[in-house]
Amino acid sequence: MAKSNIGAIDWLSIIFFTFLLFFGWVNIYSTTFSPEVSSFFDLNQYSGKQAMWIGLSFVAIILIVATDTRFFERFSSIIYLASLLLLLGLFPFGKTISGATSWYAIGTFTIQPSEFAKIGTALALAKFISDIQTDLKSIKSLGYVSLIIIIPALLILAQPDAGSAMVFAAFLFPLHREGLTGYILFLLFAVATLFILTLLFGVHWIVLSLFVLGIVIYYFLRKQRGIVLFLLAGFAAMAAYCYSVDFVFHNVFKQHHRDRFNIVLGKTKDIRGIGYNTNQSEIAIGNGRWFGKGWTKGSQTQGNFVPEQHTDYIFSAAGEEWGFIGSLLFITAFLGLCLRVLFLAERQKSQFSRVYGYGVSSILFFHFLINIGMVIGLFPTVGIPLPFLSYGGSSLWAFTILLFIFLKMDADRNRR
């Protein structure tokens, strides 16, 4: 144990964190509100259980603040390996809920290891990059960091939990900060964009567009043969990729994933089936208008029209009962926390702390982006929680530990 150094912890981050916790708690209470139960602390209600998780999270904060920062760097590899073992253990010992074997069950208590695997991966990635002292331009280094990220993502995908596995793409941003070329990020963005466009317009129209674009480029750059050949080879590769999209979509994706993509892309409309959650969520948010219906007054929320509203769809309750102004306040606080962590990461004297800080901010922001996009119908429903707002002990503890390990690193930055 080390001197706590609590006075050096960034209090602006604490303010953002506390506001988000409180905002989430009152919204969880509202989504499960019953006139017969008025207590926030009734352990038979979700709000009471969340209060218990919040209390235990503060215990975790105290332990983290009292721990020597060097512990997290020294044992990062062990923490990472332990997180992988917990993921592997799910296959023989895990509990299946909603089709995914993602939880350990001990009596009525359940824990989701994938949430804690993000912490282990962030620490292992920071440790590896700070140890090798490289700009991530060598194939060998890229191979190692790719394995650190891909192994837990594949174990989570096999549960199957595509939403949680998708979050590991957030680690591309700390890698980019440490020297990963932007061309790789652009390539990944182009691959995702082509996938969506091919599903939306059909492979033949996209390939025809690529062919026309190739002719135009050839006409203007025909004298620069090296560049032309490189670009034409790229267009040929993209055309071949487009033809593979249909196979992947129909043979790799599960039927419910295909249905959700088709709903988001506007190719089908199923407001009574798989699109029900998103449709009801959009109605709830629309009901809120500027200033909201009032706490515990939302017709969609109090009528239980939005399934899973206390977990993945918690933002729809905030939108209906607190309106645009309340939702904007929440969004501002959340983005403020993410940006504050990035600011703190840049002032670190240790590369390990900087990389980890970027990992923390990226994970939080990725969860925020996907969850909000899902709730308002921009992204398919994938089932990932909104940090600090959604009900659940595993996610709340994991996000709290993830954040406060970094805040402890920042508090001790001048001692290392």
Q: How would you describe this protein?
A:
With 416 residues, the chain is mainly alpha-helical. Helix content is 68%, strand content 3%. The chain has helices at 11-31, 46-65, 70-74, 76-93, 113-132, 139-157, 162-166, 172-177, 182-201, 203-221, 225-251, 255-264, 276-288, 299-302, 314-346, 351-375, 393-411; strands spanning 95-97, 100-106, 109-111. The protein has a three-stranded antiparallel beta sheet with strand order 1-2-3, covered by helices on one side. Strand 1 and strand 2 (100-106) form a beta hairpin. It is globular.
How would you sum up this structure in a few lines?
The protein is mainly α and 416 residues long. The chain has 17 helices and three strands. The protein is 68% helix and 3% strand.
